[in-house]
């Protein structure tokens, strides 16, 4: 099943941030991927 966060991770991977996408994918599996993604977006 494609959840919005998974689609977002897929886009991140395609844009050359594959390692970051994999890290975020791991975080999503633990259940805090969206919070981490928002945190990283605020930093940039």
TrEMBL record:
Superkingdom per UniProt: Eukaryota
Name of the molecule in the record: Uncharacterized protein
Organism expressing this protein natively: Rhynchosporium graminicola
């Amino acid at each position: 099943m494609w959840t919005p966060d998974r689609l977002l991770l897929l886009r991140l991977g395609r844009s050359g941030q594959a390692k970051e996408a994999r890290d975020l994918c791991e975080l999503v599996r633990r259940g805090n991927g969206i919070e981490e993604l928002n945190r990283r977006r605020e930093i940039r």
